[in-house]
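User: Hi! I'm working on a homework problem where we have to compare a predicted structure to a textbook description. Could you give me the structure for the chain below?
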Amino acid sequence: MTTPAPTRRAPVVVIAPDSFKGSLSAEEVAAAIGAGIQAALPDAQVRLCPIADGGEGTLDALMHAGGERLTVECRNAAAQAASAPVGILKDGTAVVESAAIVGITDDAGMAVAVQQRTTLGVGDAIRQLLDRGARRFLVALGGSSTNDGGAGLLAALGVEFFDAAGEIVPPVPAQLQRVARVDASGLDPRVKEAHFVAMSDVDNPLCGPEGATAVFGPQKGVNPDQVATLDTALGHFAKVLEQALGRQASGQPGAGAAGGLGYALLMLGAQFRSGAETVADHIGLDEALAGADWLITGEGRSDAQTLHGKAPFIASQRARRAGVPTTLLSGGIDRKSLDKLQSSFSGCFSITFGPMDLKEAIAQAPGLLKDSGEQLARLWQGAGAR
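Assistant: Happy to help. Predicted structure tokens:
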């Protein structure tokens, strides 16, 4: 009597990439890879879990799991009238993405010098969400163009800054050295009722050689000869603010995130958390990995920095705990970092199939992701994965 062959269980594949900056959102990346997986494995159960690390795309990743997307009126980094998306998750938690308000990719905000940019708009967004009844906030810090120590955020929420003559000081980096007195009596009382989680993948302090200005200022337009001046101004601002509020935070990990926006939130009592860990919790990545056979993650470009709290690394750590192997599929892979990367990923792959410039790769990204996903699935299947 012939024994019937055991019934093969359909594979469960979790796809949890970050966005490909300047090309596709994390949701679009996940969908393209998923299409490739199902082209090779039509019966596969594909679970799309786009992820982010607290920078650009964090709002989209969280909204993929459900909630209400809203548009608020707020000022951009140049203090001009603008609008930006925010969200309210199904549990009532409000989501504010700094990159969507004062982001480094916003041409209008970047049109003014970094010394004149402000985070007023982030405070505007928080105030309007308070108006809607929100009292729990996730504030994504990555990708900002600002370096004002969060002075703009505080000003929008009612804190006032004065110079020695009693004149109001504008909340921009070029003016922070003038601050002689801080009046927090006008701080929106609802802020004290709120709970803030500041989300980022960096742990820099506010000032010093590892601080906001020295490390992140150059990518925002800070010239080498301006670093010391702007860093000193942030230090002075922090000293006066901390005396007024009776709290110290400038040396705390994460205070230097988003040009010191992390510092202002810490001064309001915020909890600082890894952006990728927070997103993973809210989108239910652990639940998606339960019973899964394979995880695919990725980002625009992967190198050794990926292992310092970036979304693909956090996803791989979650998968490892669940006993699920992880493949890294990114736009580009730094060959020099392969030894380090492969300690966390069961294979690291780029989506390009031959010589290709960045503009061409961006234009063809959906097809490249789909084709790469299909070929990985065929390899996985051919290796006898079950």
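For your comparison, note the following. The CA atoms of residues 169 and 175 lie 6 Å apart. DSSP finds 15 helices and 15 strands in the chain. Good luck with the assignment!
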